[in-house]
Automatic annotation (TrEMBL):
Descriptive protein name: Pirin-like protein
Family named by the database record: Belongs to the pirin family.
Residue ranges constituting the Pirin C-terminal domain according to the UniProt record: 174-278
Domain of life according to the entry: Eukaryota
A Pfam cross-reference name: Pirin
Source species of the chain: Hibiscus sabdariffa (roselle)
CDD domains assigned to the protein according to its UniProt record, in alphabetical order: cupin_pirin_C (cd02247), cupin_pirin_N (cd02909)
Domain Pirin N-terminal: start-end pairs: 28-121
Length: 296
């Protein structure tokens, strides 16, 4: 049995993420970032996306945060204005620190439906204008272990004695759990962090053993405490992600893909993007093969 928790967190809010249109013809189930939950500090957006060509996310910018793309099925090809290009396949991870500016396209493989999760992690005022950076892990390089009927893939942070090599500028944990029927999880979470669960498959019991079960596409916000307890009392596999982060406690002013602390900084960002300055220089002559630019 895993270590004991003194003060397990309970579920304080629950949301079902329904499909909506985003990008160009793409479908996302947005949980964080929708109207009822604008921000869950430090998390700006959580999208479970499903894209089938010719849909996708053509040329668009980002500034002031990180995008974390974790593929569940199929693949997405990304290409940015500096010529950084690659394909994120099933089980692969791209942790992109947009910092002062990235302009890129994210487009699905031509055949089939591509599915994954994209999380937007805010950066503190000190780090919003840092140099862009990519951290990429292919599926085989993601730390994975199984113990007592519980498999974990450690995207960020650590669990069941294994660690991710990803550096999180905003301290973050991101764990992908698959629990066998009858298994019971106890996972520590730093006390001061905000944390949530998003269910991908099956049904699980979270927080208190007597609480009602929760199925796919639900987001659960966890209350105060030192960790998460979860049970699979069903006859099928249960898969979910557990994500936590240290809250920044700063004002957030967002305009589409630009996230800053003040309206002045947003005005400056729009100016920089339109005039190709302060990190957007390379956007002047760059277009991806998809050309079309995404409105925000
Ligand atoms: C974006 C609209 C968008 N969720 N999930 C406006 F759709 C996007 C955007 C994405 C996105 C991309 C992938 Cl690969 C997966 C996503 C939104 O690109 F950035 C803005 N501003
Ligand atoms: Fe993007």
């Amino acid at each position: 049995m895993p270590e004991k928790l003194n003060d397990p967190r309970s579920v304080v809010r629950k949301f079902l993420a329904r499909p909506q249109h985003e990008g160009v013809g793409a479908i996302v189930r947005r949980s964080i970032g929708r109207f009822e939950l604008r921000y869950f500090d430090p998390f700006l957006v959580l999208d479970e996306f499903s894209v089938t060509a010719p849909a996708g996310f053509p040329d668009h910018p980002h500034r002031g945060f990180e995008t974390v793309t974790y593929m569940l099925q199929g693949s997405v090809t990304h290409e940015d204005f500096e010529g950084h290009k690659g394909t994120i396949g099933a089980g692969d991870l791209q942790w992109m620190t947009a910092g002062r500016g990235i302009v890129h396209s994210e487009m699905p493989a031509p055949q089939g439906t591509q599915k994954g999760l994209q999380l937007w992690v805010n950066l503190s005022s000190k780090h919003k204008m840092i140099e862009p950076r990519y951290q990429e892990l292919s599926s085989k390089d993601i730390a994975e272990t199984t113990k007592d009927g519980i498999k974990v893939r450690v995207i960020a942070g650590e669990a069941l004695g294994i660690k991710s090599p990803i550096y999180t500028r905003t301290p973050t944990m991101y764990l992908d759990f698959t629990m066998e029927p009858e298994s019971h999880l106890r996972q520590p979470i730093p006390k001061s962090w905000n944390a949530f669960v998003y269910v991908l498959e099956g049904e699980g019991i979270f927080g208190r053993s007597k609480s009602s079960s929760v199925n796919a596409h639900h987001l659960l916000l966890l209350g105060a405490g030192d960790g998460l307890e979860a049970w699979n009392k069903s006859s099928k596999l249960l898969r979910f992600i557990l994500v936590g982060g240290e809250p920044l406690g700063e004002p957030v002013v967002q305009f589409g893909p630009f996230v800053m602390n003040t309206q002045e900084e947003i005005d400056q960002t729009i100016d920089d993007f339109e005039n190709y300055t302060n990190g957007f220089e390379k956007a002047r002559h760059w277009r991806s093969e998809f050309g079309l630019s995404l409105d925000f």
